[in-house]
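Issue: copy button drops trailing tokens. Both records pasted manually instead:
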Amino acid sequence: MPSDTGDCPAPRRPARPHCTCNPMPDAPGARDMPTRSRTLDTTTPALTLVCVIWAIFALELLFPFLGLRRLGIHPRSIFGLVGILFAPLLHAGLFHIAANTVPLFVMLVLLQIQNSRRSMQTLAQIWLLSGLGTWLIGRSGSVHIGASGLIYGLLSYLIAAGFYERNWRSIAIGAVVLFSYGGLLWRIVPSYWFVSWEAHLCGAVSGVLVASWLRRK
């Protein structure tokens, strides 16, 4: 007779549902975000400075009575020292500012690519040295305005940095600048009376000095 106490099979547990979790696809453009971020980091300083220069130019056109151009560099005058800070932001007319905009933007972007960690330091040193040099050697009774001194400083710095630093990035950037804008260097000598060759010369010398000084650090 079968025993009443025989073992009964335990009820089977329901199988756990098996889940397969697939990673969600990247959002459109997600992989491009690092590239976009690098592009913004490279171009933002250049765009900012160019926009400030154009904003000041527009302000001068709208409110000429402000006399902003008086804030240029007056050689060897105490008041003219203020121009060391403000002269690169001021321009005499539409042709003047238009001629400076593209090379200034290009030079600033290349400066950021060449060494983003010290680009602002380099820009500040060239800005001050070129302005001080113009204040020292500029023609008496003249007022020097415009970003051309800064442009020549960046131009000579990028070329000299390729020579001093001897890395492929600096050499390539220096070669591009020399090939594209080297023709500007002839304007470091006196030419037209309305051209500030003093600012061009002091900018070019400042760029070489800064490149040499940074190499030793």
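Record 2 (pasted manually too):
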Amino acid sequence: MQLQTAQSGGDDAKLTGLNPELPVVPQPESPPVKKPELSSSEADREAIAQATIEKVTTAEGNVFPTLRKSPEPIPTELNTEKDPVQRIKEEVEMIMQADLVNFDKKANKLTGIFTEIPPDRQTLFKAEGERLANEITEMIQSGKFDPGEAQDELVRWLKIIPDVNQPWIMQMATIKKDKILALVNQIHRDRNMLN
């Protein structure tokens, strides 16, 4: 791109079009600055001088200076810690919804008995299920899980489903209670192993 200049009574060259009041200052082309070649040890010393020193604390509490930056942990299922109560609640919810609702990948929709419940009852069934999951989680957390009480609550919850017979309800409640009891036993084993 060429710049047009105008002469105005003297040797002052001014830019036309942009700002006629500013003089154009010729810039001599400067050759690229060559850095002196450094030996590898000199280059290392220069890099160390420019690096920031961080301190790393070991598990024992010792502090060491380091030039390496501590890597950020990559979030995975293994190192993302969830609240233990939330994990228990999620497990209880999974047990409660098992065999009631499934996701059909081919049809890309929900299937199971839950989808056959009328919409008004679905809302009630879901709300009561969440309430019951919270109640069971509290019982497990407090260490006062009563299998008989849990089964009675599960039966009351399953009776919200219309047009199912009593033996099916009792069977489903027993299966869910047994799975929750196995979860409770697993939690107690894990706690005993930690203590």
